[in-house]
Design brief:
Layout: H1 3-11, E1 15-18, E2 26-29, H2 31-34, H3 37-48, E3 58-62, H4 65-76, E4 80-84, E5 94-101, E6 104-111, E7 120-128, H5 132-143, E8 147-157, E9 172-178
Parallel strand pairs: 3-4, 3-7, 7-8, 8-9
Antiparallel strand pairs: 1-2, 5-6
Helix pairs in contact: 3-4
Amino acid sequence: MHSTEARDKLSALIADVPDFPKPGVVFKDFTPLLADPGALALAVELMANPYRGKGIDLVVGAESRGFIFGIAIAQALSAGFVPVRKPGKLPRMVHGVDYDLEYGTDRLELHADAIMRDQKVLLVDDLLATGGTMAASCELVGRSGAHIAGITVLIELNFLHGRDKLDGFGEVHSVLQYD
């Protein structure tokens, strides 16, 4: 399947939900894509392929939608998976980072011993919007001394300029982009 044809197949399975979670927002719902086994496999492949043969040790995904693709991509790359979670969800010693949201702040944490210095890490999420969650995840990974090999997402909302917050964190790869 040609790359454009593959992206068109996936894009057709993304449902636009107007005014969710608030008026004026058009939510990109990828759950129809998850229900289609072929499309799910294709999405994982397109997200993982740029990182094949790059020696990825760990895939890191943020709660909760980053888990969906993160674990599958880790398997595809024969790598481990490390979850980044909301506060109070991890049972051992954690490192955390506070970050700004559109209205307020939030916090992400990961186990302090989950990532070792010099490991090659790929960060994964379903969506790159404003970039806050991904930038916070990158900051957490960077504190470990690991090397961020890249960032891969299924959907990027270009008009929110989230990629701008990720300068210095490696190549950003997105399968579907919306302007």
